[in-house]
Design brief:
This protein is an alpha/beta fold and 311 residues long. 52% of the residues lie in helices and 13% in strands. It is built from twelve helices and seven strands. A seven-stranded mixed beta sheet has the order 1-2-3-4-7-6-5. A hairpin with a 2-residue loop joins strand 5 and strand 6. Helix 1 packs antiparallel against helix 8. About 2% of the residues have low confidence.
Length: 311
């Protein structure tokens, strides 16, 4: 369950941020056996879309590492995220130097200035309030549920339990558990069917089967709608499987028909077909190859002229 929730969190952030950014998950941090959960680089051409995304849009206005936690993180775990942030910035500088053909700063004191690289922000997403983290990095409240560390760290801490229950925080609140997740699911279910939040969240909720077992006595109608999402998705998968099965059966039928046409043409031409060659023709599933064989069989004088491919 824990790993499934982690994968859901990464996927939800990646897919949500992909609306306005170049977003990718599990970015490898060189020189360390670490991976960034989600790394987002804003697309300036999509600022209008970012404005409607609420808090997630506000948090992605600059290159950012997003690190969602299933449980409230300790100071030690956040320090690991800070190491990723510093190491990733070093890697971005290395890439910029390589792209510009520049020399590393300690290789030549007279080298030209290095390419400027934005220091990426770190966004830590916590279900509960990480008191030790907030105290250690002198985090100050920027808005309800969002804290900024001292400026030099470029770190934001999002406390899901403290976010206001608004549409602007909905996608982030879906990363919560228990009551927080139930409330977020209820809010999601009440949105119009064409809401962008539903287009991002519903496929992932169904794929990772999150929320389907969440008890919600106060929201029976909403719970029924959420269960309907899963049933609809499963019906869709079954329908796709049936269509695919019919398509494969049709293709196999056509291939067998074409193979028998090749054998018929060879028989009419009076060309003997050994058992091994017959089995090869009947086993062939490539329609283009069977078509070539049929064209050759109509005029061929030998089996080799039909089956041998030019080198």
């Amino acid at each position: 369950m824990h790993n499934r929730s982690d994968q859901f969190a990464k996927s939800l952030l990646r897919d949500g941020l992909s609306l306005v950014s170049a977003a990718e998950t599990e970015v490898e941090v060189l020189a360390a056996t670490q991976k960034i959960d989600v790394y987002s680089v804003p697309d300036p051409a999509r600022e209008a879309e970012r404005a409607r995304m609420g808090l997630l849009g506000d948090l992605s206005t600059e290159p950012s590492l997003f690190e969602p936690f299933h449980g409230t993180p300790s100071l030690r775990r956040v320090r690991r995220c800070l190491r990723k942030q510093l190491t990733w910035h070093h890697e971005l500088e290395r890439r910029a130097r390589a792209a510009a053909g520049a020399i590393a700063p300690d290789e030549d004191a007279d080298a030209p200035p290095q390419p400027a690289v934005d220091f990426p922000a770190l966004v830590v997403i916590s279900p509960g309030r990480p008191e030790m983290v907030l105290d250690a990095y002198r985090c100050e409240p920027a808005q309800a549920g969002v804290y900024h560390a001292v400026p030099g760290l470029v770190m934001r801490v999002v406390v899901l339990a403290e976010l206001p229950r608004t549409r602007g925080t909905l996608l982030l609140r879906l990363l919560g558990t228990g009551r927080l997740l139930r409330e977020a699911l209820a809010d999601l279910a009440l949105l119009p069917e064409d809401a962008w939040e539903k287009s991002i969240a519903k496929p992932l909720l169904v794929h990772f089967r999150l929320g389907s077992q969440e008890p919600n006595d106060e929201e029976d109608e909403v719970s029924a709608e959420i269960r309907a999402w899963f049933e609809e998705y499963e019906q869709k998968l079954r329908a796709e499987a049936r269509r695919e099965g019919r398509r494969e059966g049709l293709n196999e039928g056509r291939a067998e028909e074409a193979a028998r046409a090749v054998l018929t043409a060879l028989r009419v031409r009076g060309i003997a077909v050994p058992d091994a060659a017959r089995e090869r023709i009947l086993a062939e599933k490539d329609p283009e190859r069977l078509e070539r064989w049929l064209e050759r069989a109509i005029t061929a004088a030998s089996l080799a002229e039909v089956l041998d491919e030019p080198s």
